[in-house]
Design goal:
122 residues, mainly alpha, 0% strand
Length: 122
């Protein structure tokens, strides 16, 4: 009797479950086939939609990159103009023997140069 009792306790049920999650623009293959089964042509429409979305996303990323480059270039040009103007004021102040007049433009020029080098190291 003890053997039957112990053998019953040794029997175990094993249950396995699996889960699949689609993280991309397309459904899982079983779901994809189900769409086509329910509505013929749905799979083609889903693929076309995913392709259109990918093209749109790539175009947006390219536009963002181009705009970023354009803004950085414009900022560098403005910084160069400010630095050159500051250097002109410094030079004129030195020739006019006005050392006090060189303080603000010098600080502006040095700060401008420093910010260019600091911002390029990102």
């Amino acid at each position: 009797m003890a053997n039957k009792s112990s053998s019953r306790h040794l029997q175990q049920q094993v249950e396995t479950r699996s889960m699949a999650i689609a993280t991309g623009p397309l459904p899982l293959s079983k779901e994809f086939a189900g769409y086509e089964e329910v509505l013929p042509g749905a799979a083609e429409r889903i693929l076309a939609l995913a392709e259109k979305e990918a093209v749109h996303r790539h175009e947006n990323e390219n536009d963002i990159i181009k705009e970023s480059v354009r803004l950085k270039s414009r900022g560098q040009i403005f910084a160069l103009i400010v630095i050159l103007l500051s250097l002109c004021v410094i030079t004129i102040s030195i020739f006019m023997k006005q050392p006090v007049g060189t303080i603000a433009p010098t600080i502006t020029a040095v700060a401008g140069l420093a910010s260019i080098f600091v911002n390029n190291k990102k």
